[in-house]
Amino acid sequence: MPKFFAEGPGADGFLYIAGGEANHVRNVLRLKPGDKINVNVSGEDFICEIDAFTERGVRLVRSENPDARGQSGEPRVKVTLFAALLKGDKTELAVQKCVELGVHEIRPIITERVIARAEPGNYGNKTERYNKVSLAAAKQCGRGAVPKVYSPVSLSEAVKFSENTDVRFCAHEKERERKIKDIIKINPDSAAVFIGPEGGFTDSEVSFMAGRGILAAGLGNRVLRAETAAIAALIIFLYETEGN
């Protein structure tokens, strides 16, 4: 059953699917009034019936079927991924896969070795594109929320953003002793994961983060591509926190 994220309820008591998603319902899937779809509203899933197509969007009637609720697919720990900008479509790949895995939000960062620089004139379009990728991935894998992808910030700004999280670490290929499981506290509610660009973090960046409580952790005995490192770090962290 197709899944969508809805607004509402509005003043009229109905839920609505708006914008491009409404077009997808009506003109791509060619659904009609009376058809039922899986809809997430504020983190909860419901089976909804299409009531009508209006100027506002697809108008829905929400079911109170208890079997349709509580299946949001959201991890207990909210993980913010601070990932360095990557060249080509590698950032898009990392966004897609990390959303599928359960990341809470993604904040791209600019580090010393970043090749793909954020240009003020066009990066807004890239951020919009990444958020569309996030929406599609969230729908595909049954997420209960759509992770937001923010505009790029510097490493120092990212470190400030992460100050209130329970667990913070950066993936670093030179770290051979400390693993992610060694950093995890008992029952954390939030985490910040830092991933470097092609070439990784510099030693000075690792020292800078360590001085602010962000410890380096190894991901194994092989050097991973940056986009792979983001995926691997998220898998390991969520396994350690969800499997206990």
Please characterize this protein's 3D structure.
This protein has 244 residues and is an alpha/beta fold. The protein has two domains: 3-68, Beta Barrel (Ribosomal Protein L25, Chain P); 78-242, SPOUT methyltransferase, trefoil knot domain (Alpha/beta knot, 3-Layer(aba) Sandwich), CATH 3.40.1280. It contains seven helices and 13 strands. The protein has helices at residues 19-28, 90-101, 123-141, 155-161, 180-183, 203-210, 226-242; strands at 3-5, 15-17, 36-41, 44-53, 58-62, 78-83, 105-106, 109-110, 148-149, 153-154, 167-171, 190-195, 215-217. The strands form three sheets. Strands 9-7-6-12-11-13 form a six-stranded parallel beta sheet, sandwiched between helices. A five-stranded mixed beta sheet has the order 1-3-4-5-2. A hairpin with a 2-residue loop joins strand 3 and strand 4. The longest helix has 19 residues, at 123-141. It starts with a strand and ends with a helix.
What would CATH call the architecture of the largest domain? 3-Layer(aba) Sandwich
Q: Tell me the helix content.
A: 25-40%
Decide which structural class fits the backbone. alpha/beta
Order of helices and strands: EEHEEEEHEEHEEHEHEHEH
Biggest beta sheet attributes: 6 strands, parallel
* Cα-to-Cα separation, first versus last residue: 31 Å
The best one-word shape is elongated
The unreliable regions are none
Q: Output the CATH class name of the largest domain.
A: Alpha Beta
